[in-house]
Amino acid sequence: MINVFIKIKRNNGKCSYYETFLFKGDINSSIASVLEEINSKERLINILGNHASPILWECGCLQKKCGACAMVINGVPSLACSTFLKDISNKDKIVTIEPLSKFPIVKDLIVDRENIFKKMVENHLWLEKTAKINLNIIDSEYQSSKCLMCGCCLEICPNFSEKSEFLGALGMVNIFKLINQSPNNDHKNKIINNYNKNYYDKCGKSLSCHHVCPINLPIEEMLINSNRIIVWGKKL
């Protein structure tokens, strides 16, 4: 058993504030389990002894398959379901949990990530015809298809903002898959133009995204290969 202070950045629709709760439980617990345990109390009390409303947060599979539980944990964009107390607890036994800051707050730890999908539509990131398969890079295409669209890579990126046209690593990963599967036509040309304008020209190459991806996508490799195909016009 371990005692840990869970400091939550909350939002009531009018303002943001921090509220801290005491968690008593297993050090092997995930942050998702911690939030569930705190909310399970019949009467939720913070460390000041005041009554508190349940913490609002999103989850889906709780198996690192959907990306819904993305949030900032001790300053690092992470998935609550795959982040464990044993790996992040510090000597002060304080864990700080905040919502992703690059997206509009709905309430507490819930944010609106609709802008991700709007940008995909604006940049024509879909297949118009049956995908063509290149067996030489099928493993890389499979890896790119595993992207959870969680937004962790966008949260850590110094070049991405909600109002920016920059697509971030999330957009690049999806373009990498599409550019290899799309036949040569006007639609593919639009994807190429949008990659150059809204990704290549705006990426600072900090590669922070590579280090926070919760499923460890080979983002650096996909970036190199995307530039090789789209910018330099070479084959893989």
TrEMBL record:
Domain 4Fe-4S ferredoxin-type: from-to ranges: 138-166
Pfam families found in the cross-reference section: Fer2_3, Fer4_8
Protein name per the record: succinate dehydrogenase
Keyword Glycosyltransferase: no
Domain of life, per lineage: Archaea
Enzyme Commission (EC) number: 1.3.5.1
Keywords assigned by UniProt, alphabetized: 2Fe-2S, 3Fe-4S, 4Fe-4S, Iron, Iron-sulfur, Metal-binding, Oxidoreductase, Tricarboxylic acid cycle
SUPFAM superfamilies reported in the protein's UniProt record: 2Fe-2S ferredoxin-like (SSF54292), alpha-helical ferredoxin (SSF46548)
The protein's required cofactors: [3Fe-4S] cluster; [2Fe-2S] cluster; [4Fe-4S] cluster
Uppermost EC category: oxidoreductase
Organism from which the protein derives: Methanobrevibacter arboriphilus JCM 13429 = DSM 1125
Single annotated GO MF: electron transfer activity
Family membership noted in the UniProt record: Belongs to the succinate dehydrogenase/fumarate reductase iron-sulfur protein family.
Claim: DNA-binding is one of the keywords in the record: no
GO biological process, alphabetically ordered: respiratory electron transport chain; tricarboxylic acid cycle
PROSITE patterns according to UniProt: 4FE4S_FER_1, 4FE4S_FER_2
